[in-house]
Amino acid sequence: MKALVLNAYGGIEHLAVDDIPQPRLMEPDHVLLRMHRAALNHLDLWVLRGLPGVEHSFPHVMVGDGAGVVAEVGAAVDHLGVGDRVMINPGVSCYRCDMCRAGEHSLCVRYQLLGEHLSGTAAEFVVVPARNCAPVPEGMPWDQAAAFSLVTLTAWRLLTTRGRLGPGETILIWGIGGGVAQAALQIARLHGARTIITSSSDDKLARAAELGADHLLNHNDVDVVKEVRRLTGKRGVDLVLDSVGEATWERSLRCLAPRGRLVTCGGTTGSMVSTDVRRLFWFQYDIMGSTMGSNREYQEIVRLAAQGKLWPVVDRTFPLEEGARAFERLQAADHFGKVVIDISGAA
Ligand SMILES: [Zn+2]
């Protein structure tokens, strides 16, 4: 079968579309999927360079998100059948450790992500645990189905379970070009929160306005802290979503109202942030990390997607043969929304 694989660490130049053996269904609770789309996340760029503590065997099949059709089911699978259209939750848990038993699947001690620790989704066929598959909502195109899971699940847990965002509260979201930020904008609106959105691009801010953002700040042109103070009557925001890291962290904290919360799922500009501990204790801030989400949280977002809510924005779709171009598109950071790879025409 054809797959987009990484043959050595370094960068996009080590990506290739190769013929590799088709995976076989070995576990009774797994399914074999004929893939239609794979969707990229920022994490997939990290995989190109190699991740500390993760040893890949080459060729390594890339990409975490995806959607396809069930081609074969294991003997113990009863909720899926051949021909079902499914999207994949890329987080694979063990279901045996204390965290899994407590329902905290993204804190599983053996937590693994497709495309990162495990073989990815940019292939004609993929084998995954059946419990990682959810039905594609009625009417949702393949592109959006593939792009849905990782960013929506991540943003959902960030804003609801961790960030406790409530109606009437105000949230600041940095960098609206990415999928997590866009999912967060939709989730914030769903919860009746007021949104302040930043970007370095006026075009992206205009797109955010179309998605219903309340306030738009070009963080290259304006003093974000000052504008946030002005927009909130000097009070500050209740919640900040900052996955930018070093470049924005201190400003994020200065945007918070007393008892404000900051949530993060990464640091794209660098991970070593500095926090003024005096402000932290005096204003009684909460700083919270979050990654992916539990099965219960995944079921919640799938249910909302079935109601037509939280559908992701797709930037562009590339055929599998041009998979490396999809990575270039993501790396250039000009995209608005998800970058997708179409595998359906590969056979
Ligand atoms: Zn576990």
Report on the structure:
The protein is of the alpha/beta class and 347 residues long. The chain has ten helices and 18 strands. Strands 3, 5, 6, 9, 10, 17 and 18 form a seven-stranded mixed β-sheet that branches. Strands 13-12-11-14-15-16 form a six-stranded parallel β-sheet, with helices on both faces. It has a three-stranded antiparallel β-sheet with strand order 2-1-4, with no helix packed on it. Helix 3 (142-162) crosses helix 4 (179-190). The model has no long low-confidence stretch (mean pLDDT 97). The structure holds zinc ion (ZN). Residues 93-94, 96-97, 99-100, 108-110 line the site of zinc ion.
Tertiary shape = globular
CATH topology of the largest domain: Quinone Oxidoreductase, Chain A, domain 1
| CATH second-level architecture of the largest domain | Alpha-Beta Complex
How many E strands?
A: 18
Portion of residues in helices? 25-40%
Distance from N terminus to C terminus (CA atoms, Å) equals: 8 Å
Tell me the structural class. alpha/beta
Q: Spans of 5+ residues with little confidence (pLDDT < 50)? A: none
Q: What is the number of helical segments per DSSP (H or I, 4+ residues)? A: 10
Q: Sheet bearing the most strands, described? A: 7 strands, mixed
Overall pLDDT level:
97
CATH superfamily of the largest domain: Medium-chain alcohol dehydrogenases, catalytic domain
| CATH domain class of the largest domain | Alpha Beta
